[in-house]
Design a protein that fits this description.
Radius of gyration of chain B: 23 Å
Structural class of chain A: alpha/beta
Number of strands of chain A: 12
CATH class of the largest domain in chain A: Alpha Beta
Number of domains of chain B: 3
Number of helices of chain B: 8
Low-confidence stretches of chain B: 1-21
Largest sheet of chain B: 6 strands, antiparallel, barrel
Structural class of chain B: alpha+beta
Helix content of chain B: 10-25%
Low-confidence stretches of chain A: none
Strand order of the largest sheet of chain A: 2-8-7-6-5-3-4
Order of helices and strands of chain A: EHHHEHEHEHEHEHEEHEEHEHHEH
Mean pLDDT of chain B: 87
Order of helices and strands of chain B: EHEHEHHEEEHHEHHEEEEEEEEEEEE
CATH superfamily of the largest domain in chain A: Type I PLP-dependent aspartate aminotransferase-like (Major domain)
CATH superfamily of the largest domain in chain B: HUPs
Mean pLDDT of chain A: 95
Number of helices of chain A: 13
Largest sheet of chain A: 7 strands, mixed
Largest interface: A-B, 14 and 15 residues
Strand order of the largest sheet of chain B: 14-17-16-15-18-19
Oligomer: heterodimer
Number of domains of chain A: 2
CATH architecture of the largest domain in chain A: 3-Layer(aba) Sandwich
CATH class of the largest domain in chain B: Alpha Beta
Distance between the termini of chain B: 58 Å
Number of strands of chain B: 19
CATH topology of the largest domain in chain A: Aspartate Aminotransferase, domain 2
CATH topology of the largest domain in chain B: Rossmann fold
Shape of chain A: globular
Radius of gyration of chain A: 22 Å
Chain lengths: 376, 373
């Protein structure tokens, strides 16, 4: 098997699994219980939360643990009062759907996939309360200039105060796809809300976190026992958070090495593959290679490759995703034909250099086979 | 590593239409692929027999209702995966609007009248062997093919029961037109189901042991009643015992019930039974007054009949006086005398719900049928 879809899911690493294990069986206590062993679990949970927070330059008390990124994104949008929301048109469905629910307006991207700052400025009127821009896009790997956006926001905030406009203005970013390869610091990015997710950093699925800065007020996503500062009631997912902490600190330690490795693989793969058009040319995460083969139905490619044990993704009108074409590829101006022939290859820790060579050879063969079939 | 499927076909069976085609130009077949093993193996066999095969997924229904997930996207992916494996072209033909109009609307209007229609019969008549057939012919097809268990005799043409008596699907096919039938191939009609699965497995088709879909696709596993509730308003009414007229309970609308039904009756808080433990059956529906009548009496005259009146009769043979009748898919064949409208049985039969089909046979030949009035 050559797994080249690390943007979709990552395997839980051995070390992470080991760290989690005792909390399923031995240290299973409810952190809210009164006796000492439970208090110990509560303390370890808090420590783990602190590790996660530290990895993004925040404090434990700034984090709300959630059941994944989707829930964190939903929670982030609860900051909206009377205000409006602007979101990047290429956002993940978990942001787009919530933004649409709140009547949000989409901000355009340039053909590179990077935010169109002029469009953002044009739409940023006094009604806007929240702007949501993912740090790295999940289909293209495009990295957004968050620091630039937050600088713009700072100016707008000052101007609003000067004019006596009371509407607050927050910046939210879904950093799920980015935490693996970018060194994230909430202060440096200038975000008020930040979503992260264990499943993309070789941690368990179903665990995420929302960073919330002090001046943002949210509404609970669920009510009950008052856990997570009352914002997400429900008994704490102790093993999940322990695993998340282990995974995110590991990822942090390997960022530089991994980036270098993936960048060289990317270069290598682009040299060895034939007959493609490169889509994510720059401003991208190093482990993303997005291509298109004109005139080819990429879904057929996926099935041909799957037969050879190679797993990749496509933005095509994939049957398994209900025939919906990638809105991201459309937003950067690709034609229907280009989208239908698009492949997303994402490297990760399961890969080796030999695998990338092997994958290039097999993908070339599959593409040639499809062209031959079409030509008759 | 997997070998290309076109090289060898293990365990392939000889076929009536294959050998003589070798030296004439390839003939084109559009095969309806549902993602299931039957239509997948059908495509496989046609390819091996030398046809120019084009796989088509018919998209008939894609709406997910609350709590009901129609598995069309997965089915489509399964169908396409097989097409890619076989190296054949694959297309998706969208019949959703026609299906809604011709099948779903028909079904709902029949239910509203108190009948229990069979949407699969209507789907074959209106969609698969009409729209799909017409579109395929217009696209240059010599034949269409499906994964039904049935056979075609070129003379007539005649529709013939499948070799696998347990899987025979002629019950759902009796209303398709002669024209379509004359241009149809049922590649697995002479195979036994276990052999179909085996052939799929031997040829590396991933869906060899996929769970079979039962009943109407879009109703899924939740059931007809929940589906109907999306479209037909709940209208509470009484459940009465037919003998005593006593009110035993209440229902959500007589149209949701079918004669012979014994599940889903809520009588004085006990599902389907009272006191002595014997189940109550629905024996009669008064749609106008919205009353459902039930009985414990298995001999109630409403459940039994020695004759059935048919409407919308479709026949493809004049030899239709002494016939064998099938009243349900997979039900045994019962001898009867038919006069063009009415079926007379020697012994009383359990009366099928109105709206269901009675399908007529001469020995192995399906000669048509009609809708039970």
């Amino acid at each position: 098997m050559i797994y080249l879809d690390h943007a979709a899911a990552t395997p839980v690493s051995e070390k992470v699994l080991k760290a989690m294990e005792p909390y399923f069986t031995v240290d299973f206590f409810n952190p809210s219980a009164a006796y000492l062993p439970a208090k110990k679990v509560a303390a370890n949970y808090e420590t783990a939360k602190g590790v996660i927070a530290h990895a993004i330059g925040a404090k434990s008390s700034d984090l709300v643990i959630t059941a994944g990124a989707t829930e964190a994104n939903n929670l982030a949008f609860s900051c909206l009062g009377q205000g409006k929301v602007l979101y990047l048109i290429t956002e993940h469905a978990s942001v787009r759907a919530v933004a649409e629910k709140y009547g949000g307006e989409a901000v355009k991207v340039l053909p590179s996939g990077v935010i169109d700052l002029a469009d953002l400025k044009g739409k940023l009127n006094d009604d806007v309360q929240l702007i949501s821009v993912a740090l790295a896009n999940n289909e293209l790997g495009t990295i957004q200039p968050l620091a630039e956006i937050s600088a713009l926001i700072r100016e707008v905030k000052i101007d609003r105060l000067k004019r006596g406009v009371k509407m607050p203005l927050y910046l939210h970013s879904d950093a799920s796809q980015a935490i693996n390869l970018l060194d994230i610091n909430v202060a440096r990015l200038g975000v008020d809300l930040l979503t992260i997710n264990a499943a993309k950093v070789y941690g368990p699925k179903g665990v995420g976190a929302l960073y919330v800065s002090h001046d943002v007020r949210l509404s609970p996503i669920s009510v009950g026992g008052g856990q997570e500062n009352g914002l997400r009631s429900g008994t704490e997912n102790v093993p999940g958070v322990i695993g998340f902490a282990e995974a995110i600190s590991r990822a942090k330690d390997h960022i530089n090495g991994n980036r270098k490795k993936y960048a060289s693989w990317r270069k290598m793969l682009l040299q060895e593959l034939q007959g493609y058009e490169l889509i994510n040319k720059k401003h991208t995460l190093d482990n993303f290679v997005v291509l298109c083969y004109n005139g080819i139905d990429a879904e057929r490619l996926i099935f041909l490759l799957e037969d050879q044990g190679i797993y990749v993704a496509t933005g095509a009108a994939c049957a398994a995703s209900k025939g919906v074409r990638s809105h991201v590829l459309k937003a950067i101006g690709l034609s229907d034909e280009q989208i239908a022939g698009s492949l997303r290859i994402t490297f990760g820790e399961t890969n080796t250099e030999e695998q990338i060579h092997e994958a290039a050879r097999i993908i070339n063969d599959a593409v040639a086979k499809e062209y031959r079939r079409i030509m008759g | 590593m997997n070998q290309s499927s076109s090289d060898t076909l293990k365990g392939a069976r000889p076929s009536l239409r294959s050998s003589k085609d070798r030296f004439i130009p390839k003939r084109t077949v559009f095969v309806g692929m549902s993602g299931g093993v039957d239509s997948s193996v059908s495509a496989l066999l046609l390819k091996e027999q030398g046809y120019n095969v084009i796989g088509v997924y018919m998209k008939n229904w894609s709406k997910d209702l609350p709590g009901m997930k129609c598995p069309w996207a997965e089915d489509l992916a399964d169908a396409k995966r097989v097409a890619v494996k076989l190296g054949i072209p694959f297309e998706v033909w969208d019949f959703e609007e026609a299906y809604r109009e011709k099948v779903v609307e028909y079904m709902l209007s029949e239910f509203r009248k108190g009948n229990t229609p069979n949407p699969d019969v209507m789907c074959n008549q209106e969609i698969k062997f009409k729209l799909f057939y017409e579109k395929a012919m217009a696209a240059g097809a010599d034949f269409i093919a499906t994964g039904h268990y049935a056979r075609v005799l070129p003379a007539g043409p005649s529709l013939m029961r499948a070799v696998d008596e347990n899987k025979d699907q002629t019950y759902f096919l009796y209303r398709i037109s002669d024209e379509a039938l004359a241009h149809t191939i049922f590649p697995i009609g002479d195979m036994m189901k276990p052999d179909v699965k085996k052939l799929a497995e031997e040829n590396g088709l991933h869906n060899a042991y996929k769970k079979e879909s039962m009943g109407v696709c879009f109703v899924g596993e939740v059931g007809m009643k929940d589906f109907l509730k999306e479209y037909i308003d709940i209208k509470p009414g009484e459940i009465r015992e037919i003998e005593s007229e006593k009110v035993l309970g209440y229902h959500e609308g007589a149209v949701f019930y079918t004669i012979g039904q014994r599940h889903g009756l809520y009588l004085n808080g006990v599902a389907g039974e009272i006191n002595d433990g014997l189940p109550y059956y629905v024996v009669k529906k008064d749609i106008e007054k919205n009353i459902v009548y039930v009985s414990k009496n298995l001999n109630d005259e409403n459940i039994w009949a020695d004759e059935l009146h048919l409407k919308d009769v479709a026949l493809r043979s004049d030899d239709n006086h002494e016939v064998l009748v099938r009243l349900r898919h997979r039900a045994p064949l019962i001898p009867a005398i038919f006069d063009g409208n009415t079926l007379k049985f020697e012994q009383k039969i359990k009366r099928p719900a109105s709206g269901q089909s009675a399908v007529l046979y001469n020995d192995e030949i399906c000669i048509g049928g009609g809708i039970i009035a």
